[in-house]
Amino acid sequence: MNTMAELRKDPVIGRWVIISTERARRPSDFGPDPVRPRGGHCVFCPGNEGETPREILALRAPETPPDTPGWSLRVVPNKFPALRIEGDLEPQGAGLYDWMNGIGAHEVVIETPDHTATLGSLPAAAAADVFWAYRGRIEDLKKDPRFEYVLIFKNHGEAAGASLEHPHSQLIATPIVPVMVEEELEGSARYFRKKERCVWCDIVRQERQGHGRVILEADGFIALAPFAPRFPFETWILPTAHRSAYEEIGRGEVRALAGLLGELLRRMDAVLSEPPFNFMLHTAPLRDPLLDHYHWHLEVIPKLTRVAGFEWGSGFFINPTPPEDAARYLRGEIS
Hints:
The protein is of the alpha+beta class. The protein is built from 6 helices and 14 strands. It is 24% helix and 22% strand. The longest helix is centred in the C-terminal third of the chain and has 22 residues, at 251-272. It is globular and about 50 Å long. The relative contact order is 0.12.
């Protein structure tokens, strides 16, 4: 069996799929997950650095050597990567099918040495360090000409896909722009061609006029419930000034972003009883970072409902909570 991951292209709609054979090979691998006990041994905790791949980036006390305790943040390669950094893409085709080697980068950002912390409970400076590390890794991975995109994401809680309790997020660099980002880019470009304005900037302007969907705004960032959310309590965080690429962010902006996200997560914890959640950072492609029609943003999605057959089969999402109500709960106006 081929042990190299592959990227395969669906010939009907052009969607690329990662076939990652290292992750599950036998039918028994797909049974119900056992309930993982809380606590116990953690490979991300200080003292266990030898159990992770060697660190790529770390914020640590002076004179402490790499891969030892004394750090406040570490970035390491994922031990079980969806894509591997070694090798060449080698695009191939047979008839209507196209594929290439599964080349990319898959890294883990270990956000804090504190096993029990969350992004919402971290001190502001420590949370800002996490978002500054994202910027640094994008800038570094951009140097590799094989990569077209870097997706940063966080799975918090077992129901959201987190396999370890310790606070961490991930990034995957891909040789292809992900289809969901491509759809945003195409829709934004259509709007710009018609109106010569950025649709994301227009969203910020219109929501500020008062439609009940703004949750928070501070220091150049806004958190809002989108007009047509796919999921209950889905929230977008955007810079209020036009920015297409996340790596344009400055140190002061990182602190403001981390502060706003921390406040949002604390409100979600209070209103939704500490829900599992995902967040995804959507930014411009690496090779086209300065776009008049696109606006980077963070999508925060609590895991409160399950996507079922109708949603998968139709592309329609059924959301039982109007965004105006979700925003009112998160603003503390109703309980």
